[in-house]
Amino acid sequence: MQHWNARAKRERANKDNMFKQIRDDVSSYFEKWEPKLALYLKHIKRKKIVVPQFGDGLVMLACAKKGAVVTGVDFSSEQIRFAKEAAAYCGVNIMLVKADWQNLPKNIPNNHFDLVVAECGIFIWIADLSAWMRNANKLLKKNGKLVVSDFHPISLITEENNGKVTFKKSYFDQHPQVHQSESGLPPSIEFLWKLSDIINAAIQAGFRINCVEEYYVKKGESIPFLPTDFLLVATKE
What we know:
Number of domains: 1
Radius of gyration: 17 Å
Largest sheet: 7 strands, mixed
Order of helices and strands: HHHHEHEHEEHEEEEEHEE
Strand content: 25-35%
Number of helices: 8
Distance between the termini: 34 Å
Oligomer: single chain
CATH superfamily: Vaccinia Virus protein VP39
Strand order of the largest sheet: 3-2-1-4-5-11-10
Number of strands: 11
Helix content: 25-40%
Structural class: alpha/beta
């Protein structure tokens, strides 16, 4: 909790231009920053969307700006506070719930939402992947969709420099790690899941997998050897 409250304060000032883009031209925001998610968020006016671990709130705000009825869930009081300010700035109304997605309160209705949408920086912070997926499934209506874009697990344990890939640890070493931030933030705990763990947790929670896409975010002109991100789309049966 201390890590995320401190991180929210540090990163808030860096998001002003993106908040302005959401307020003034939300379509260009999605096209530039979230092209993979944008394919699934074209027609969301009046759709009920819940955003777990909304963090900086950018995707949550963009969905609301497109006319969706949005609920955001995060356990950081600072993220909640900044989200309220950002929502007022962007001219949208969002229901904000302070809670851990792995242990949701009863005031969030089950079988209610059309979409669960989450983006980068999700699963590395989750200790109980099964609980995360079960809660996503529980909140969705029948045939509701889970749409997640996140960092690829392989990208979290590798570094690429001048065409050479170095592994920082084994892909199969899943011991939780204490992460000491170089910027002086309080430490945090990281959980390294394999891509198959994420897919299987979704299946076991009752989802039908529509697609899994592995892709890279361009860095300069070169094409990386390994994916940087992945997209998971699944439907509640």
